[in-house]
Amino acid sequence: MRSIQLSVSNKCLRNCKGCYNFFANTDNFIDCHNVITFIKQLQQDIKLNKVTVTGGDPLYREDLPKLLEELKAINIKINLDTTGLRLLDEDYDASFIKKYVDVLGIPLDGGSDSVIKTFRQSLDKPIETTLQILHKLEGQGINVCINTMVHKFNLSEMVSIAKLISGFNNIVKWQLFQYMPIGPGDHAIKQQMYITEEEFFVAVNEVKQQLSTLNKDIKIEAKTSQSRRDKYIFISPMGIVWCPDKQDDDKRIMVGDIKNSADYHNILNFIQS
Ligand code: SF4
Fold it and tell me: How far apart are CA 192 and CA 227, in angstroms?
């Protein structure tokens, strides 16, 4: 069965060169009711018990607490991937995260600002900012997963990242993703960032060795681009279900619209494929 990536917001401030999202910065989202109706139906038909809530950045969606509360009320385990930047706004009430989110994913792709900026461009001091976010989450007792996109420019930075995160006691998981050259991004950039599966697993093994040296018990999940092509399905902020086209990295296969009940069986079959 495919893993459901529920994208609930079109907005994101990180401006990553390798972003796979086909989105524009708008506030035009599918409403909670449609999402919950669809997820309930899946839960009934395939015993769905977990979704990854993603974006853009989901924290820019104002009714996110309500959506998460409703997902939790139907016993769905929630992983939420965010840049975390909104958590640094003094007046942002993040108390809903501890209540409803099982694991919060935060990106960290390098041990130096210059390397991080080869992929994620918008912050002046990405390491300092990320560490501030992680401290804040640690203070609130929120379980964190570090998400690292492994690409050509940060291949040799895994040990540095391990050292950066080793002092936190709330990091329960570290997901490493082999860079996947999909989405509307520039072809030249996609080629520059590309790494082979072999290179990816060398980096993963370095991570495992370093964590063992540091005596740090963090669950490692290594996800190749091929495994994600076959195992992920994306729901866009407007409710369109899609997955990457295996033949053409620039394109996606449109599976259906969760607002349209006539599309449901097609979507269900695809999720089970
Ligand atoms: S943080 Fe994620 S959603 Fe935002 S620009 Fe980067 S890849 Fe895209």
Answer: 21
Neighbours of 205 (CB within 10 A): 13
Tell me: the pLDDT tens digits for 188-242? 788 889 999 999 999 999 999 999 999 999 999 999 998 888 888 999 999 999 9
* Most ligand 1 atoms within 8 A of CB, residue of 16, 59, 123 to mutate: 16
Q: Tell the residue nearest (CA) to atom 3 of ligand 1.
A: 56
Domains of the chain: 3-272 (3.20.20.70)
Residue 5 Cβ inside 6 Å of ligand 1? The answer reads: no
Q: From the CB of 11, is ligand 1 less than 6 Å away?
A: no
Separation of 56 CA from ligand 1 center, angstroms?
6
Q: Is the pTM of this model over 0.85?
A: yes
Residue pair 200/178 in contact by the 8 Å Cβ criterion:
yes
Could you report the per-residue pLDDT of 154-181, keeping only the tens digit for each? 999 999 999 999 999 999 999 999 998 8
In this structure, the residue with its CA closest to atom 8 of ligand 1 is 19
Give the end-to-end CA distance of the chain in Å, rounded to a whole number: 6
